[in-house]
Amino acid sequence: MFKVGLSAAAAIVLGGAIHADPTAQARGDRLSPAHEKQSTIPPGQAKKTWHRGEALPVRYRNARISDLKRHDLRQPPEGYRWVRVEDEAYLIHVTSGIIAEAVSSAFS
């Protein structure tokens, strides 16, 4: 009787692990940095994304996007421009580089 109770308890504990939340990779989210380094991205160059309110580094601020309609991007307001970083488009303030909008996978 004790072995059956112990087996049932183990099944409950292990069953919870089986039904746990799927990993980020399974959900389609970004890979962990360790896994990104194993893919085609060179070591130390894991993909970085920026978000609204952050300043885009200066080295990316001049990669202007000229064909806005092709990528379904709206006309930027005065003092802003769209720039491309890999497969993402960022609407940035021209002088500060602060991101007003980010569009992921705009070029894929």
From TrEMBL:
Gene3D superfamilies per record: inner membrane protein cigr (3.10.450.160)
Alphabetical list of Pfam families matching this protein: RcnB
Mark out the compositionally biased spans (Basic and acidic residues). 27-38
Q: Where is this region: Disordered?
A: 23-50
Tell me the domain of life.
Bacteria
Q: What is this protein called?
A: Regulator RcnB of Ni and Co efflux
Specify the species. Answer: Henriciella pelagia
